[in-house]
Amino acid sequence: MLSVLVQVPKLDCPIYELEKSKVPGENRDMVGLKLTIIYCNYTSKQSLPHPNHHKHNHNHHHHQNAPQKNPHHPQRRTHLPPQNLHQHRPQPTGFFLTELAKPLSKLLSAGHEITFASPKGQPPTPDPLSESLLAFAGNFYERQRENELIERMRRENGFSSPRPFFSISDDELRTFAAVFIPGGHAPLTDLGSDKELGRILRYFHGENKPTAAICHGPYALLSTRLGDGGFVYKGYEITCWSDAEEKVMETVLGGEIEKVEGELRKEGAVMVEGAKEKMGGTTLCRELLTGGNPLAAEELGERFVRMVSV
Fold first, then answer.
1. Total domains present in the chain
2. Residue 9: inside a domain, yes or no?
3. Cβ atoms < 10 Å from Cβ of 67
4. 153 and 37 in contact (C-beta within 8 Å)?
């Protein structure tokens, strides 16, 4: 027996969610479905130039030995600031622990089969900031539970050897029910420009299959603009880590970080960034479910399970 969860969208976005009715004593056994979870391929370490870099260019000797800029090869923007600019120490990043663990736990509890995938198949690592007690508001036991879940996935489910995107054929994609992209700054380093990921996401979009992304994860949606037809989520309502929040991180850490909200808006997405979303609310538009920060992980996991368990 099914009941429709009615939700009034802000724009003309069809309602997607269904869930089994919560009748006391009802048998709610669910058939497990295959899902894929996608994330950055490895811990990224990038650094920014010394803050006095431009002053050094005024030194005559330094200027003579400096390499000339090639107008045909523009300087690549560094996405993540270093921990210590003076020592050129890079800032490590990876998936954000709770943004992966909470939805993953709910999917596993619902009986779904999980396949992990990444651009090149390298083992993923968590963002060190996401493992701090501060990220868990001091809740040591919650952090322990989520780390234990990831360790279990390493032992039992191939978490340390994810499938490379190219190894998942178009025929095999038909066997998957949904796709989820967790956050952390890692997606900024490679997911938005990965053609194979664009192929995968265009398939889920074309088949109207549940797709979810959280925090910086929606940056991966930009990979669809690399294929025929351009960005497939144009006109979609999307919630992600906002540009204003990213600017705060830039102030704290120094340097410049790619802006997820701005890039998606530039491609025609309708960004939803209200007080509700800042406090963990999620946004559903057609087959796409998104959330803006770690506070959204719980709700996103619950709604995503309802989307794929019908």
1. 1
2. no
3. 5
4. no
Look at residue 235 and tell me if it is in a domain: yes
**CA distances, 141 to each of 55, 108, 128, 144 (Å):** 49, 20, 17, 5
From residue 25, give the alpha-carbon distance in Å to each of 22, 28, 38. 9, 9, 36
Within-domain flag for 144? yes
Q: What is the mean pLDDT of residues 293-307?
A: 96
Closest Cα partner for 229 from 273, 269, 199, 274? 199
Residue type at 218 in one-letter notation: P
Tell me the residue type at 170: D
As a whole number of angstroms, the distance between CA 95 and CA 93 comes to 7
List the structure tokens of 178. 């949904």
CATH label of the domain that carries residue 180: 3.40.50.880
301 belongs to a structural domain: yes
Q: Helix, strand or coil for residue 4? A: strand
Nearest Cα to Cα of residue 297 among 210, 202, 216: 216
Sequence-distant (≥ 6) Cβ neighbours of residue 89 within 8 angstroms: 47, 82, 83
Tell me the whole-structure pTM to 2 decimals: 0.75
Q: What is the mean pLDDT of residues 128-154?
A: 90
